[in-house]
Fold each of these.
Amino acid sequence: MSKEKNRKRCIAVFVLMGMLITLISRSAFAGNAPQLLVETKNSLLVFSIGGNGKLYQSYFGQKPGHATDYALLQSTRHEAYIGAGMGDLFEPAIRVIHADGNPSLDLVYVSHKTEKKGDDLSLTSIRLKDPKYPVEVLLHFAAYFKDDVIKTWTEIRHQEKKPLTLSNYASSMLHFEASKYWLSQFDGDYMTEMRMKESQLTTGIKVLDSKLGTRAHMYRAPAFFLSFNKPSDENNGELIAGTLAWSGNFQCTFEIDQQNSLRVINGMNPYASEYKLPAGKTFETPAFIFTYSNKGKGQASRNLHRWARQYEVLDGDQPRLTLLNNWEATHMDFNENVLVELFEGAKQLGVDLFLLDDGWFGNKYPRDGDKTALGDWQVDKKKLPSGLGHLVKEAGNRNLKFGIWLEPEMISPKSELYEQHPDWILKLPNREESYSRNQLVLDLINPKVQDFVFNLLNDLLTENPDIAFIKWDCNRMLTNTYSPFLKENQGNLFIDYTKSLYQVMERLRKKYPHLPIMLCAGGGGRVDYGGLKYFSEFWPSDNTDGLERVFIQWGYLNFFPSLTVSSHVTSMGKQSLKFRTDVAMMGKLGYDIRVKNLSPDEIRFSNAAVQTYKRISEVIWFGDLYRLVSPYEENRAVLMYVNEARNKAVLFSYLLNFRRKEYMGKVLLSGLDPDKRYKIKEINLLPDAVSTHPDNGKSYTGDYLMKVGLNLSPGKISPLSSAVFELVME
Ligand code: DGJ
């Protein structure tokens, strides 16, 4: 039989099966609609199959206490995953243009299966298909029972004659019915990342999105809280926290219809991305991750943190390295002697690792400024004549591990790489090159470029096997975007770029599964769970001013666990060294400072702080976070971490820029065992200082601390001061 005949026969069988399934669905499912359940400890997502064979989301929310009541959840008002071009008049989940030009997709239920993947995880996959066209869609729901987290994504495939054009392809569509909806979003810019804003949604569409390509989250994060009926606070309210695991362009859409129902669609941004999907290939969307809480935002964050540490973040259950980075201390102006001096400083601090930042490479065009050398990843022989091996050794002699900065996806127009491979660069034909930070982006979609990036890291790590840490930077977004490799399929570019990045990371992780790599994009321009599968931590912002960092880190900690939030003590900001250190300690502590400019007392303090941090970091990294007083509500921020056994806790209290005679009430602690006693000790004090805090050394029951609370600002208080307390069960 000819290929063409065979193909036609396949399509006919596919279509016939679809019609049959629709008929079976119609007859077998008359009366009570059959249900599909996705369950976690406290939440329930119910799908029903309607008499028309279509899949409906009948319920999502708090799980009823009696499973017998689930059968009452039968609503067929909201189709689960809506194809454009049929009856629905609001935002679709998916829009395709068939090979014959028909721009519609009708999806009917075909089958589903639920597999137990362990005690805590079950995976439900639901197959839908178009009865008239050979296109199928698979909806996946991974339910992480104990953490109340659901991870959902979609696969699309077809057997049409020509490539199918995909113009919308949501990872998830969810429907809600509440009287009011409140959205907390997180946005900003370079140096002002993750500012929290809350507003009530009104009829129409609210979109959070990015079109930046790389460094895609610089203006907005694909992460939000969505509260139902009334705004939630830390401990009260019904909400979901949601985030998209995708390092590229994203789109989170919230649409309230004429009946006050809300549909929430999350996925890759379809902007400039009409994707051509060849027959037989699977188009997989990134995952949308969400958690339900009816106990406020704090619970939602803790759910995500616990889940992320166990399942998503690279080595999320393993300790991190404290480090000294040289970027803010030297920028690109250093040589071997300066670095060795910095190693001495790192040794004085007592950190685990020295991280060499930008400026160590390039010979024909040395990297003395940001106009040259990206792509020429050979050590600068003038600056560092003895090579990297020498530096690794010198660091080792001081008991320090060594890490290094790279910006693998980028290229300087003044580089040997540019001279050798002008066709490896994303840029529009017939247009001027468009620079940002004087650089261009490599066409990572091209497999040769992927090899180049892989080999760059692989060679570096092979030649210097003791390199123990990488900082992977990405200092520009995409503009002037055109891939010479993709030719006529430019609509695939934004999506394939990010997929290519993940492919390179997959390859690297196969060979170097546990090497810590920091995700950085000129500050916090690229932070999401898609990336954190491959990266152990991220750089939240180039703004390291202690006061600003309280807000920035607070923002990220809503969605990401503390051991991923790199928080460095620098000389930026007018606050005391103690304040800046206390702020950095709430995340993953590091330094980016010229130690020789510190006084002997400051060095003593910092060294003791590092020791203290190492002692308490287990609670900070793996404990539960309780945000007690928000800097958005008062001129102070208070948060605490409690370990799983609830026998240790660490409390951070930061007084911000308050005004004269501003009264600060007692703070109610959280997460403790009410029936146990905890001894309170102020820690991280200046050298030779003794705590003057009236509760220092005292013991209270957890019940007292959570109901009566502590006065954290007794006596005369000063703005921009801070205190850290350790609580140990007696
Ligand atoms: C931007 C990063 O955020 C900084 O920490 C530093 O690594 C510079 N890039 C180096 O160019």
Amino acid sequence: MVTIDLEDEKKEILRRYRKLLRHAKAVLKDGDAKVIRKAFSTSLEAHKEMRRKSGEPYIYHPLAVAQICVDEIGLGTTSIVAALLHDVVEDTEMEIEDVARDFGPKVARIIDGLTKISGVFEHGSSQQAENFRKMLLTLSEDVRVILVKLADRLHNMRTLESMPRNNQLKISSETIYLYAPLAHRLGLYSIKSELEDLYLKYTETEHYRYIVEKINTTRLARSKFIKNFLAPIQKELWDQNLDFVIKGRPKSIYSIWNKMRKQNIPFDEVYDLFAIRIIVETTPENEKAACWQVYSIVTDFYKPNPDRLRDWISTSKANGYESLHTTVMSATGQWVEVQIRSKRMDDIAEKGYAAHWKYKDNDGKVKGSGLEQWISRVRDMLEQNDSSALEFVDDFRSNLFNEEVFVFTPKGELKTLPNGATALDFAFEIHSEIGAKCLGAKVNQKLVPLNYILNNGDQVEILTSSKQKPSEDWLRFVVSSKAKARIKDVLKEEKKAAAVEGKEIVLRKLKQMKIEPNSETINQLRAFFEEKTPLDLFYKIGVGIIDGKDIKKFKEVKKETTNHPRAKILDGKSFEKAIATISGQDRDMLLIGEDMDLIDYKLAKCCNPIPGDDVFGFVTINEGIKIHRTSCPNSVELLSNYGYRVVKAKWTSKKKIAFLAGLKIVGTDRVGLINDVTRIISSELKVNMRSMTIDTDHGIFEGNIMLYVHDTRHLDLLTKKLENVNGVVSISRFDS
Ligand code: MN
């Protein structure tokens, strides 16, 4: 038992509060300290009975969130107050009206944006998605909603340790799915990297630890290398009287892991483990010239790779990022990335949105207006979009991964579109009516189809026809949310008309079969035909994609379900029940391998889990529970959007059951290699192979083998044996 010294705790709370004030001091104006004091005592009082999962007093959390707002985002009083109070409406007796009365409408609006929507959701919708949409609605009015939310999320990720495992997975997945891209989009580079690293820590713990360990053991050698590399550059910078700072640090753990995984290489082969940053202090008029001067010095000593020059000074990235990047060849034969920027650019790169305000032009406009453009685009999207929250989050997300493409109108006006945008996206960007009537385009005077993918520098002219109208097909090649939303709107109108007809057919058939046409029946019918929404079902029946006669088959199923309630999970309510049964009391864990007949589950084909893998169960609509690996490519989306359908799961089987797994073998081709590999698999280890495909190209051998193993230990043993085969270079597991 732990005894808590309340006196000590009080002192610690005050210590943390004073630290917050001390760090905020520089931005405080007259009377600000008083407001912050009031917010602090209000929050302290409201949360006084609450403790965090870790056992600490709850007030530590709002204090920490406010501290992040000050130290890591550079925000001022309104945000500090909002951060201190961000959980009171949701978690305590306090109402939003109380906040408005005591702290004014601005703070109240921010807190309202941060307060989750409560209540029941339509089946198929996701509470997280609804909450996210609500939060974004306030973004166009006040971007601080998102900034405080990011601070909140960052602190929750930093303290994730004390959460139960399934919550860790759910929160981490949401973070990588939405919050890290959002931080990136707002230019909050350090917060984005930390969120990604923490995601990795909780989902791929072993890999995370391995990379951290590797970074530590190679530190000494690395700093020696950097010192030698920089010596001549530094001297020349001094000689030319430049005022500068140099930073050299490893890339984030997450980005190293991504490189290793994508290129399938070990840690030691990730060549750009670190980037060197040269920051020059100069006047705003001189910064561009100064950066190129530094570039010239660097490339006097080391040859640059012409394909890796990135000039984000002449045209900044849409999130406001400005910098000059080059990759040069060091004296020891390693490529080194060098980033060159001014102090102002560096502040913006690190702190993002908030830092922009520090560098206002005289006319009050924000430099790096790409960000302003983006916010106005989000505003448009929210105004136009009446799709479901899930669809919306999906659209929004695709807008976050921005690497954009710059193109021109016939008059030479610059337009920025998301990467992969087509001529049709461009048409919608000009005007939604032009998009809807778009027939084709001329790119650099040449005729191209609607789905032509735009390249940087293209000059685009749109051709229209009054007879043209949007079709379902178009959705497959537009990428901007503006175009998507507009096309969906038009299609929806058409669909509605057909659905009215379909609904009449359904009601008539149900009446014939003497089934009550209530909403539960309709929902079961929807599930029976595996449609997403009743509208989809009515539409497909209306236009004849689904034959009205098939509704009869539903009658049989309906009967069966009523007689055997456990037979199939058909609607939202039975989901909750199913989860309650498995997650109730002591048996809150789905045990895989035993109780085979008690619960209906299947192993997901997308990631082929085997015993020993870290897994979770996911309640599907028609196929019972599916078991996925936590590292499955689909898991992020499942966990973040449908967290309520996730069931904890673990392996228990002691029985020898065979599970399907995939191994990719790469090696140098030699006579007899295949023989050696198959001999180990079938004769030595007695493993059954299901299939094997082999490719050889220019002396490189690549084999994909599907085989049956018992568990991860069995698979590891096999991998080790195969690695020893002469000529084999690498072995990795792959998902289907
Ligand atoms: Mn919070």
